[in-house]
Amino acid sequence: MTPVNHQPKFEYQYPECQGDVLIVDSLHFSYPDGHEALRGVSLHLCQGDKVALVGPNGAGKSTLMLHLNGILTGKGEVTVAGLPFNKKNLPLIRAAVGLVFQNPDDQLFSPTVFEDVAFGPLHMGLPENEVHSRVAEALDAVRMSSFAERLSHHLSVGEKKRIAIATVLSMRPQLLILDEPSAGLDPRARRTLINLLRELPITMLVSSHDLAMVKELFPRTIVMDNGEIVADALTMEILSDNSLLEAHGLEMP
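^ thats the sequence. predicted structure below, dont judge the formating
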């Protein structure tokens, strides 16, 4: 372990990579008010990785995630599925990165579930039969096949979260990014979501304060605080270090 700001930093030992999905190299970002939200963030996700992103409020987690499909742009290098960020590649990168917000109402705006899930494929210019195929595939992946004609705004929070995931799965992304997916869910809906995330065969970066879910689902955890990555290691290493957790506003599950 190497000390960083007098706190231990774990270095993740990458196994043999089956293909680079995400590379972030020395990413810096400041908001217009001068607040420095990201201070040289670097990370690497391989194909099939399922990684948790944890840290206190204000650590920079959401700011980082908004950089991964071009909503925000800072200084540094971001490469998704081998594509460096630039104006030409942005549409391809946004198709490759499925970003699911904490509040599903930010993502569901069409009258029916089918229309919400079909929105992305339609705007990709896909033919009608391909759109229908992708909607069916995405709804099946989140166990919501029977909900296609339901009104989105009549669904429960847990159901809305699963439909929000389906709206990005219909784009067939290479990287799925979720912000606090278990927030606001009752125990049954939370368990359903955990089982769903476990089964999805996709590279995943998930920001969460739910360390019990992190412990159960994610082999690797990245800890952010004050705009920096302070630890990146096997989840059980992170969660077994009480001093690290306490120093960065986290509690053992």
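The mean pLDDT is 91.
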